[in-house]
Amino acid sequence: MSAYWEQQRERSTVAALRLMIWASLFFGRFIIRIVLWFIVAYFRLTSPVAVRASKNALRRLLQREPTWRDVMQHFYYFAGCVVDRLYLLKDTRHRFQIDVARPDEVAELAARGTGSLILMAHLGSFEPLRKLGTTQRKLPITILMDRKQGQMLVKMLERINPDFALQIIDAAQRGPELMLQLKEALQAGRMVCIMADRARADERALTVDFCGSPARFPVGPWTLASALRVPVILGFGLYRGGRRYSAHFELFSAQLDLPRQQRAAGLQDCAQRYAHRLEHYARLAPYNWFNFYDYWADDSPVNEITRPRTHHSISGNPPSDIP
After folding, report:
1. Number of separate helices (H) and strands (E) present in the chain
2. Cα(180)–Cα(35) distance, rounded to whole angstroms?
3. Alpha-carbon span 38 to 221, nearest angstrom
4. Which one of 20, 235, 316, 323 has the fewest CB atoms closer than 10 angstroms to its CB?
5. Based on the number of CB atoms within 10 Å of its own CB, is 50 exposed (0-12), middle (13-18) or buried (19 or more)?
6. pLDDT tens for each residue of 113-152
7. Contact 146, 172 (CB under 8 A)
8. Alpha carbons 117 and 24: distance in angstroms, whole number
């Protein structure tokens, strides 16, 4: 009986996604963004966990006590970025203004066609970065993600833009197979994108200072970068209101080298440096923070930091979220 209801719930979720995608593409952005306020109000009233997570994040990023309007705007930015992704995938980039901040060293890497890792976060939207890479900048983009996570949404995004499927490396593969595909993509001059801000409960992680409190960041991106020995770039796509986004790139390391004797300290340093840069951009655009769960150690009921198990593949179990 439970399997039956689980199946019905999955079907209803698929139906809701299809309806939302159809409505967004049929009615257009102006109408849908009005409808989003009603959807956001519903979740504001019925999702206490997300509301608590929003307040905890905004309290740190705004450095004041958030109001109910702050939480509504936080949810609205998230919903708006999700909908805008459909339009960007549908090759309607001309509707948006994307400002690009890219230092010379990153531009030189792009011009040389050097394979690189781009570390991203659940901050704003990845789609403007992907769009810049595949159209305006002519940079081949590959996304490392677990296709089983959010597979319904992935399939629908692939229907909107079939090229999206060609840009994915499945992170659910075993270590050697995954490493081979990553090396092939990098040798072909592709930029491989990985989420680096969210550690799963069963994933090896490091505790770093983030916005004044301890938070867990995954080890996987750094062990991967060290094994592949390629440039590491930070990439953030921030929603700035209206039809405007800003794409920010930074060179984190020309080649990440972590000697075995200093490996633990090197991993800790990488995670902390990344956390500082993520904090910088999160404070620039606080309503772009899209981790709606107990992110910091002192958010949870028990104020205690626990480290997950340490046995791991060389891939470091890279984050599986959809960018």
Report:
1. 11, 9
2. 45
3. 38
4. 20
5. middle
6. 788 999 999 999 988 887 776 665 566 888 887 767 666 6
7. yes
8. 32
Length of the chain: 323
Asked if residue 322 lies in contact with residue 149, where contact means CB atoms within 8 angstroms, the answer is yes
Residue position matching structure tokens 């989420």:
195
Q: What are the pLDDT digits (tens) for 187-218?
A: 888 889 999 999 988 889 999 999 999 999 99
Q: How far apart are CA 285 and CA 65, in angstroms?
A: 16
Q: Measured between alpha carbons, how far is 171 from 177 in angstroms, rounded to an integer? A: 10
Across the chain, where does the E strand assignment appear? 97-101, 116-120, 141-145, 168-170, 191-195, 205-210, 213-218, 232-239, 244-253
Q: Is 158 exposed, middle or buried (0-12, 13-18, 19+ CB in 10 A)?
A: middle
Q: List the one residue out of 193, 187, 214, 186 whose CA is nearest residue 271.
A: 214
How many Cβ atoms from other residues are within 10 Å of residue 172's Cβ? 11
Contacts of 54 (CB under 8 A, 6+ apart): 66, 70, 71, 74, 75, 292
> For the chain, how far is it from start to end, CA to CA, in angstroms?
35
What's at 48, amino acid-wise?
P
**CA dist., res. 256 & res. 241, Å (int):** 35
